[in-house]
Amino acid sequence: MKKNNLGNIVFILLVLLTVIVWFVFPPINDGREDFARTYAGEVMGSVVIVLMSFSLFLAARPKWAEPYFGGLDKMYQTHRRTSTSAFLLLLVKILVVPITLENWRLGNYLAFVSFFGIVAIVLPTLAPRIPFLNKLSGPTYESWKKLHRFIGIFFIVGYIHALTIDALSAFIAINWVQIFFIIGAISYLYTEVFGGLFKKSVPYTVEAVNHPNNSVTEVVLRAKKDPIQKQRAGQFLFVRFLSDKHMNESHPFTISSAPHEDVLRVTIKACGDFTRHLFANLKAGTDAVVEGAYGMFDYKTGGQKQIWIAGGIGVTPFLSFIRDLETGLNHDVDFYYTVRHRDEAVFVEEIKAAAKKHERLKAHIRYSSTDGSLTVEDIIKNAGGNASGYDIYMCGPLPMVQAFESKFREAGMPAGNIHFEEFNFK
Ligand SMILES: Cc1cc2nc3c(=O)[nH]c(=O)nc-3n(C[C@H](O)[C@H](O)[C@H](O)COP(=O)(O)OP(=O)(O)OC[C@H]3O[C@@H](n4cnc5c(N)ncnc54)[C@H](O)[C@@H]3O)c2cc1C
Asked: Among the listed ranges 250-254, 264-268, 419-423, which one has the minimum average pLDDT value?
């Protein structure tokens, strides 16, 4: 069993165990008319609480848990899955449990508040997948994030509802679920209330701001005192700048410098409000706050033969890999860097120079507007017609990464050999 899958496996086992606990220690049949439906509803409600507690736990970004999921970006993928499963199960639960409109007590009102609160938050969260819902959460990621912050309150209200309704008597099962409620509630309070006391937010200064082309900013950051801890090349950080309110938002960026450098470099493509504002306004001398480093995107854990694929600004972790080659390269790497136009490519000369210096690194720069789009067929052909013995490392626009992943899988590449960094937490 791979360590980086252990977290997901434990989550699945805990969900199964929750169901098993309810069946091994069933509630006392008190003779009520809808006993079976109430029982089924309580089992589902318990699983919803367990899944939501996982989501809240992962949203607290516990750094120590990264190796068990394969990095923080993968933890956010699991967060999306547990949240979506909890939401769908909640909808099924509503259909299953007997609901009466008479004799409402506190628990019923709380259920109503919790359910509609969760629906109002989760539907817009699914927005990237259901475009018309985008309108509900507002146009920006920040407005979506602000709305998302209330989910824990409805989780807590939902649990209090479970305690204040006419629930079935199931001492062991209810206490088992209580453990998860406590984990979820503490995680939520940590994220939103007291986490700041423990989180390592480290003060930096912007030492230099460079523009390698007309849409990319390279920011050079120097620690005011102790720097953040970097474990390996290719990790990412969260940074905010203290110059004005637009820039005081924490955003994730890959560290494109090497771990041994005494400064941090991030290379940022202007694509939305924050990054465009930064491109136009960030100045040397600005104070910054950095959190990290996170991430497990690490070619050094892969096999001898490797293929690296960077699309657009997805080149940043590979820049860090290349800048870290001080002691040489112990892998045979075909590095494909693809952008639409020549002027979109950044640090090409540096990549070519590294390929000249390290003969095991072969750089293939592809301008799709003139050379045609890079395809998996091209890559496999170049690998001698069979890439199954290779490890693939990809970073780039999500549709590109997803399309490449499914093509490599179709070509018989084992899933465990395909590694990618998602530039997306939503
Ligand atoms: C692990 C990781 C590493 C990244 N590395 C780089 C990099 O090296 N260079 C680079 O140019 N970009 C990188 N990104 C993407 C970068 O974070 C977004 O482009 C940037 O945050 C967009 O902000 P915006 O307001 O300009 O754009 P918007 O249009 O507001 O957002 C575009 C998308 O970026 C994401 N995003 C926006 N704000 C945040 C936020 N506060 N936290 C998390 N995600 C957000 C959302 O998916 C959103 O849909 C990385 C993202 C991740 C998750």
From this structure: 419-423
> Does the beta carbon of 236 lie inside 6 Å of ligand 1?
yes
Are 386 and 416 found together in one domain? yes
C-beta 218 within 6 A of ligand 1: no
Show which of 294, 322, 341 is a domain's final residue: 294
The dihedrals phi and psi of 342, each to the nearest 5 degrees, come to -55, -40
Please report whether residue 426 resides in a domain.
no
Task: Give the C-alpha separation, 152 to 58, whole Å.
Answer: 13
**Gap from CA of 134 to ligand 1 centroid (Å):** 17
* pTM of the entire predicted model: 0.86
Token pair of 136 as six digits: 């509900």
The Å distance, Cα 423 to ligand 1 centre, comes to: 6
91 with 218, same domain: the answer is no
Tens digits of residue pLDDT in 37-86: 999 999 999 999 999 999 999 999 998 999 999 999 899 999 999 999 99
Q: How many CB atoms sit inside 10 A of residue 137's CB?
A: 22
Residue pair 253/266 in contact (Cβ under 8 Å)? The answer is yes
Whole-angstrom CA distances from 187 to 59, 109, 362 are 8, 25, 45
Task: Tell me which of 169, 197, 225 is where a domain ends.
Answer: 197
pLDDT in tens, 367-378: 999 989 999 999
Looking at the fold, whether 348 and 288 belong to one and the same domain comes out as no
Q: What is the CATH number of the domain that holds 122?
A: 1.20.120
DSSP string, 261-292: SSSEEEEEE--SHHHHHHHHH--TT-EEEEEE
pLDDT at 202: 93
